[in-house]
Amino acid sequence: MSSSVDSTPSGERPIRILLVDDQPLLRTGFRMVLGAEPDLDVVGEAGDGIEAVDLARRLLPDVVLMDIRMPRMDGVAATKAIVEARLPVRVLILTTFDLDEYVVGALRAGASGFLAKDVPADDLVTAIRTVAAGEAVVAPRILKRLLDRFVDRLPDPEATPAPAFDQLTEREREVLILVARGLSNAEIAKELSVSETTVKTHVGHVLTKLGLRDRVQAVVMAYEAGLVRPGG
Question: Which structural domain range is residue 86 located in?
Fold first, then answer.
């Protein structure tokens, strides 16, 4: 999992959460866990993707906890609809399996990370706070294993319009490749003999120049564009 943040987003308003899962019992369990936290507020529940998109539009939660496999509309399509509507909402995927090709689809659609459904309660709470603060939640090496395994599902880089990589400096491009290879900021700093603060600055510039929300999208884009190959 990425580095956590213990504080809530600026302001005193609780983090508003929409629970999306086709199993009512699981939603009840998550609601009980999250309801015990004073800075978290579950504002709605949905049992399928269509309902999730509708409630996301109407309730504008900060974070949607999104199941992948659901009737009527799955979590990938729902995530895509929420992101394309440019709602001020971040999506955190819940999955039964780490190496799930549906997760790749959800990350490509704009999800800010993913968690296993059996994640410890403390990790779930930390992940929600992290995503609400604008960061991504994903273990870099798990994401790399995921993309290595399912990279053939991504668009052919020869047939995909090249992102604006020419806007990046040589060092920013280098940092992007290392991020895509699964290195943490600390590991990148050691690799390049710079400070972690400098790495964070470079990552921020990469995201801004490429119009990306977080480093998860940066990793997916690097794979799509062929900057990083499976096992690379």
Answer: 15-138
